[in-house]
Amino acid sequence: MDKIHAMQLFMRVADLESFSQAAQTLGLPKGSVSRQIQALESALGTRLLHRTTRRVQLTQDGMVYYERCRDLLANIEELDGLFQHDPSSVSGRLRVDMPVGIAKNLVMPKLPAFLQQYPGIELELSSSDRLVDVVREGFDCVLRIGHLKDSGLVARPLGKLTVVNCASPDYLERFGFPESLDDLSTHAVVHYSTHFGTRGLGFEYASDKQTHWIKTGGILTVNSTETYQVAAQTGLGIIQVPRAAIKEALRNGSLIEVLPQYRPEPMPVSLLYPHRRNLSRRVHLFMEWLGGVMKSYVD
């Protein structure tokens, strides 16, 4: 059995949900396709496809195998064009994850140029506040903001993001501009927490290379960075957020920086990726491009 060919047949059957249609598009007898898939399942020791009279569906193991086949076949295709310098020779799926604010404000505006340069790349871009499992969920690389925990992943530092304190014009009109740390006793902070039941320590600022907190008012806690920003824009309190993530809000005046002399410590920015001896060309090119995008915003 030619396993690579069997993988290609398996993916075509899964895509079309039909042995007959897969065989027709490939110009092969239906029986031949069916026998090769059965041989592949026997070699793997698991059933990849549920077969009914109406349709063919992937089993749970089939879903996992399908994803791995897609990556493997894309890498083989890329290997065939390893010494070709034409950007169109770079192909395959690329799965990445990054914070919502970074994706929305920094990456998306410049992404069309990257995809136009490399039209063979199929990009899956995840952006949420959830920390994805890079290895288990098949991510090629992720962008992380903040101090890293030991994860067994390779970390590539990109710099640090300046963090600012800001509030809406409406909020500042009602409660006034805080000019000192003592003024914060009459102000509200919007709290951010990935897990409800815990609450932030208050207003954070750096002094003498140490981090300090001041307890403030504030009755709202959110677990979404987008909601965090909207909460400030609607006048619910002060937030502390990377300046690059809210550059448009600062530019249009929907948020105004306060207490610039009392900013939190800058937040490290890192690219994380699984420990692989050789990164595929598409992953390497994307990480170089993303590092270039972030270079304009990090210190």
Textual characterization of the structure:
The chain is of the alpha/beta class. The longest helix has 21 residues, at 60-80. The strands form five sheets. The protein has a five-stranded mixed beta sheet with strand order 4-3-5-14-6. The chain has helices spanning 3-16, 19-26, 30-44, 60-80, 100-107, 111-117, 169-175, 225-233, 247-252, 281-295; strands at 49-51, 56-58, 91-98, 120-127, 141-145, 154-161, 163-167, 191-192, 203-207, 210-214, 221-222, 239-242, 256-258, 267-273. The chain has ten helices and 14 strands. Helix content is 37%, strand content 23%.
Features of the shown structure:
single chain, 299 residues, alpha/beta, five-stranded mixed beta sheet, three-stranded antiparallel beta sheet
Q: What would you say about this model in short?
A:
With 299 residues, the protein is α/β, with parallel strands linked by helices. The protein has helices at residues 3-16, 19-26, 30-44, 60-80, 100-107, 111-117, 169-175, 225-233, 247-252, 281-295, and strands spanning 49-51, 56-58, 91-98, 120-127, 141-145, 154-161, 163-167, 191-192, 203-207, 210-214, 221-222, 239-242, 256-258, 267-273.
Q: Low-confidence stretches at least 5 residues in length (pLDDT < 50)?
A: none
Q: Give helix and strand order, one letter per element, not per position.
A: HHHEEHEHHEEEEHEEEEHEHEEH
Major sheet summary line: 5 strands, mixed
Helix-and-strand structural type: alpha/beta
Average predicted confidence as pLDDT: 88
The helix count comes to 10
